[in-house]
Amino acid sequence: MGTGVYAMSLARVLPYTKQLLESVIEPGDCVVDMTAGNGHDTQFLAERVGPEGRVLAFDVQAQAIEESTRRLDEAGMLARVDLYHESHIHVGARLSDEQRPVRAGVFNLGYLPGSDKSITTTGEETLEALDALLPVLAPGGLVVLVVYHGHLEGKRERDAVLDYVTALDQQDYAVLQYRFLNQQNHPPFIIAIEKKVRG
Ligand code: SAM
């Protein structure tokens, strides 16, 4: 009634990312956070998999690993998480036989807000990481990428990722793009990749 405040029926990008992940993750699962940052998504995943589950999380910045460690420790969930101070391209090497296949993975691309903007995910490494992750994804499992494309590397990465996922065989994967079309200033969008269950 003229207050200027509207409720949105369509989920925003970050809540929808969580909704998608939540729809596939069960207690006891193994999942990966490919860009730990300040550890918000890592904590969300750790809550979902529970004490019997496992989260592997990667980040190339020491500051991100320290902040994620602090956050998880405070939440009492550090014991169910392995944090790796290295690029997500190493995900395949870090997963033990018992941890395969993984139920879900999330990439929150770009740079850490409030930190060094030159340390950003790159199209090249993101594709290498997807190449490593998709073969170890469980049938019915999900990889969700949040794509930020306001910065120069973000545009290159967006194009590289869109080309890559568009070319995935539809017999093996269902690929979704979730994007608000009328928002200004390059709003982030979601790509979700579901590995199909072979009938
Ligand atoms: N999900 C995070 C959170 O909840 O706070 C935010 C992630 S932030 C948008 C992107 C992160 O990716 C940065 O912390 C950056 O250091 C990290 N990063 C950049 N290149 C990477 C790589 N090759 N492997 C893993 N992490 C990387």
UniProtKB/TrEMBL annotation:
Its EC number is 2.1.1.-. GO terms for biological process: methylation. GO terms for molecular function: methyltransferase activity. Pfam families: rRNA_methylase (PF06962). Keywords: Methyltransferase, Transferase. The keyword Methyltransferase applies. This is Class I SAM-dependent methyltransferase. It comes from Exiguobacterium indicum.
